Amino acid sequence: MNVNYPYGFDSSGHTAQTDLPGHIFQMVEQILLTSPGERVNRPTFGCGVNQLVFAPNSDALAATQQQVIQASLQQWLSDLIRVNAVNVTAQDSTLLITVTYTIIQSQQQLTQKFVYGGATT
Q: For position 104, what pLDDT does the model report?
């Protein structure tokens, strides 16, 4: 059962569910947005991208975060996906994160893009 995140109910009053690619998309996003130490019984869960909002943006930061993201995804989702590539690019005040992975069960390759920081328009 692939529970939809955030948790909610469908029109019939049952727990809302999603398909496997959608569920994995949501789990990748949770890993990116959760800071280590934030989960009580999983102190190493997450990679803390949100903490970078106040960090100076640089190529060194992007390279470091790329390694942290890839390690976190492999640690927590290795039974569901194979991480093909993680690309983190620093542009002005924005951090662009691209994650390419293959779902092990279906061999479907997907790419997710996340943008952190910068001005919203």
A: 94
Handedness of CA 64, 105, 30, 114 (dihedral sign): positive
Q: What is the CATH number of domain 20-116?
A: 3.10.450.40
Answering whether pTM is above 0.90, one says no
- From the number of C-beta atoms within 10 Å of its C-beta (0-12, 13-18, 19+), residue 49 rates as buried
Amino acid at 72: S
Q: Which distant-in-sequence residues (6+ apart) come within 8 Å of 29 by Cβ?
A: 112, 114
Distance CA 83, CA 26 (A): 15
Is the pLDDT reported for residue 121 higher than 60?
no
Query: Scanning the structure block, which residue is given the tokens 């692939």?
Result: 2
